[in-house]
Amino acid sequence: MGMAEHTIWTEKYRPKTFSEVKGQKEAISKVRAFIKQKNMPHLMFSGPAGVGKTTLSLVVAHELFGENWRDNFLELNASDERGIDVIRNKVKDFARTKAIGDVPFKIIYLDECDALTSEAQQALRRTMENYTQTCRFILSCNYSSKIIDPIQSRCAIFRFKPLEKDQLMQILDKIESNEKLKIKDSAKQALIIICEGDVRRMENILQSCAALSKDVDDELVYSLASVAKPKEIKKVIESALSGKFIDARNELLNVMTNYGLSGLDVIKQMQKELMDLKIDSRQQMLLIEKCGEAEFRISEGSDEFIQLEAFLASIGLVGNK
User: Which residues pair with 74 in a beta bridge?
Assistant: First the structure.
């Protein structure tokens, strides 16, 4: 087997040009204008995981520097190295030297910078000021609110959104063609529902499925993603609503055992199914409130089985009314 066969698909299918990037049209159009001028401010990419923040940063490096991009681009993951020493040493050492080639600045990409300590963020703020002549920063974070205001004010902020269904479908079709897979429509729908706009998660689940079978169906997707089928969760809720508490409890235990789900996994899936239940809005609101209460108690360390049983009991009581 060659190295290419062992490549993680998230790297293998990472776009190299702006035209290959799916979604984020607004961010791409503005960043593209900066690249055309060969000048740009510091950038901040904010948004959920797996929607293209790192990819767009690498595309910027490819477009600006061409073959020399590795010499002029420093990528650091702030969640690994989050202390003040990283900013003082690694970042400053890279920032103080001039770029190779005809571009007037280097790029430092700080991934997950909302994990930086407040002291490191203060040090970063001064570094951004002092090395503007030779260096530009691209900061990536899930929550921009965790970045101190002085850094935010020095950056052009782009908010990334989860990818839409048609964009995810294009990526799936491309992988299906290139990898010579047969992905059933039901499997594609399952992948889109499970990943919720996170392309990295979608590609990882699909690669796991492809390792087992070239014919990918929804059964395989749900089992490898450790996610219960929506209809199974719906059946549990409907049993509880109709007053069959013991049946609902047994079905829930079977689902959790079969898919290896934790209490939090189950409660999150239940919350999604509650939105589609054919009950009046007042009952729906009561159940969503109880769902939030159960989720909070489980995350605080309560026994998940007791909390799930209590939630099923709440569903039964609402149905009884």
Answer: 108
pTM, to two decimals: 0.81
Q: CA 37: distance to chain centroid? A: 31
DSSP character string of 186-249: HHHHHHHHHHTT-HHHHHHHHHHHHHH-SEE-HHHHHHHTT---HHHHHHHHHHHHTT-HHHHH
Average pLDDT, the chain: 87
Residue 113's Cβ-count burial label (10 Å; 0-12, 13-18, 19+) is buried
**Which residues, 6 or more positions from 109, have their beta carbon under 8 angstroms from its beta carbon?**
54, 57, 58, 61, 73, 74, 75, 76, 137, 138, 140
Which domains does the chain carry?
3-159 (3.40.50.300), 165-224 (1.10.8.60), 230-320 (1.20.272.10)
Report the C-alpha gap between 277 and 266 in whole angstroms. 16
d(CA 96, CA 117): 23
Q: Please choose, from the candidates 116, 117, 171, 172, the residue with its C-alpha nearest in 3D space to the C-alpha of residue 140.
A: 116
**Which pLDDT score, from 0 to 100, does residue 118 have?**
84
Q: Which one, of 63, 62, 66, 87, lies nearest residue 76 by Cα? A: 87
